[in-house]
Amino acid sequence: MKEIIKMTDQAKTMKELYEMLNSIAYTIGGMVCHFEQEDRTQVTISLTESIGLGLMNTSKSLGQPCSLEMVLGRRE
């Protein structure tokens, strides 16, 4: 996590931050392609959930509004 924070701190604009995060996400997508389909799907869902929860919790702790709403469900 410290490495990601160091990398994202180097971004000077939202465009640079977006490009950096996009590269990280693309790399993660490539890393999971070696696993079974169901496992890849679960990694993608869990990653998306973590990003959303991080945004929602951080916004709340900073006293800022967050327009993101997540509905979590589990497939049996």
The separation of the N and C termini measures: 32 Å
Q: Round the mean pLDDT to the nearest integer and report it.
A: 87
Largest sheet: none
Please bin the fraction of helical residues. Answer: 55-70%
What's the overall geometry?
flat
Number of E-state strands: 0
Describe it for me?
The chain is mainly alpha-helical. It has three helices and no strands. The mean pLDDT is 87.
Topology readout:
Elements: H1 2-9, H2 14-31, H3 37-61
Quick structural overview:
The protein is 67% helix and 0% strand.
Summary keywords:
76 residues; mainly alpha
